[in-house]
């Protein structure tokens, strides 16, 4: 099952024939009665779960009903916007969390009239802000692919030869998001190299010290800087914190038993093998995250992990592939060999990030 969240009061129905499993939860949320029924046929594969939502106002008016059909898109818009009234929801991280932000914006955008919404960017285009004016709610994305400062922090020009991370510095970024009501972080993809170039000191400082350090150790240092900042600066009575686990890639078809040298190009169905795990997903890195989150919890700050890795592993057909945006015109070699330019990292929308947001809603609603 992709989500099991204990609501404030609930009734649970279990049916255990043919591996069927159904749970029904009802809870009162900021003036709405939300009933959420999850019906699963296999174990923990998102596509095998039908999730249906019923949202009623207390006067008994049905606002939203939706029966899940494996393609988890439109959910509880009014109720979500109501929950975000006068609040900021900020997604912080790289292009994968940006995809999750776009998914969230598209989901609520559909119910808002044109005059009651706006999109703008600030902070040198690092911060993109979608506003639902009637609710005074904002859904934002802040670009910082390594969470701490790095030489890849420019939202447009971040392709650099030698990636360098200022492992002790986060304030330049954090000042834009610290006071948000909901913060959703990720950082994973940009760390995928054996050694990271680390800078102690600031960019352009003659006294700065550069050193290559084993990646996993640098990842931990950066997450400690991030968690120390949260511990000291986040208002615990106001801000709710989430961390999205790593997003799987599908760049080596031999991992799922297809032809060597291929990738997600031309893939049209899911991976059927239960518990499939690609080599691109590094459990050691998520262990580092878990340890850092555990230490924060010991110090009284709760960060909820959104565990999206396994349910996304199956979705080799969910990437943009050759239909990605092309920044430069394709060469003749590329045109002759389409898989050479297929994007097997990011996700199509509507698609997989909508499922991630469905998990996020569930946590936002069932406090």
TrEMBL record:
Pfam families: PC-Esterase. GO terms for molecular function: O-acetyltransferase activity. GO terms for cellular component: Golgi apparatus. It comes from the Eukaryota. Residues 78-362 form the Trichome birefringence-like C-terminal domain. Belongs to the PC-esterase family. TBL subfamily. This is Trichome birefringence-like C-terminal domain-containing protein. The lineage of its organism: Eukaryota, Viridiplantae, Streptophyta, Embryophyta, Tracheophyta. The gene is Vigan.04G129400.
């Amino acid at each position: 099952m992709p989500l099991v969240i204990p609501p404030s009061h609930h009734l649970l129905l279990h049916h255990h024939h043919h591996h069927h499993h159904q749970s029904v939860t009802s809870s009162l949320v900021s003036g709405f009665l939300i009933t959420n029924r999850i019906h699963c046929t296999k174990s923990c594969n998102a596509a095998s779960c039908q999730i249906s939502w019923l949202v009623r106002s207390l006067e008994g008016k049905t606002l939203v009903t939706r029966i899940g059909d494996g393609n988890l898109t439109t959910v509880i818009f009014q109720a979500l916007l109501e929950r975000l009234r006068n609040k900021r929801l900020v997604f912080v991280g790289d292009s994968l969390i940006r995809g999750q932000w776009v998914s969230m914006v598209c989901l609520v955008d559909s119910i808002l009239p044109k005059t009651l919404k706006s999109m703008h960017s600030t902070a040198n285009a690092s911060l993109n802000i979608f506003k639902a004016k009637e609710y005074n709610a904002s859904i934002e994305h802040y670009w910082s692919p390594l969470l701490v400062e790095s030489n890849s922090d420019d939202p447009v020009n971040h392709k650099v030869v030698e990636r360098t991370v200022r492992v002790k510095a986060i304030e330049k970024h954090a000042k834009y998001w610290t006071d948000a009501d909901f913060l959703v972080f990720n950082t994973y993809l940009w760390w995928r190299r054996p050694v990271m170039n680390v800078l102690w000191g600031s960019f352009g400082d003659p006294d700065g010290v550069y050193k290559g350090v084993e990646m996993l150790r640098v990842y931990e240092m950066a997450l400690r800087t991030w968690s120390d900042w949260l511990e000291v600066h986040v208002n615990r009575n106001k801000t709710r914190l989430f961390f999205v686990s790593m997003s799987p890639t599908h760049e080596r078809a031999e991992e799922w038993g297809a032809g060597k040298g291929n990738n997600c190009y031309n893939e049209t169905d899911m991976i059927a093998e239960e518990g499939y795990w690609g080599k691109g997903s590094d459990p050691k890195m998520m262990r580092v995250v878990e340890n850092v989150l555990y230490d924060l919890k010991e110090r009284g700050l709760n960060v909820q992990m959104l565990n999206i890795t396994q349910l996304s592993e199956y979705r080799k057909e969910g990437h943009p592939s050759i239909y990605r945006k092309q920044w430069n015109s394709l060469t003749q070699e590329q045109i002759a060999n389409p898989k050479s330019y297929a994007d097997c990292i990011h996700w199509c929308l509507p698609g997989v990030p909508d499922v991630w947001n469905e998990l996020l809603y569930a946590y936002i609603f069932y406090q």
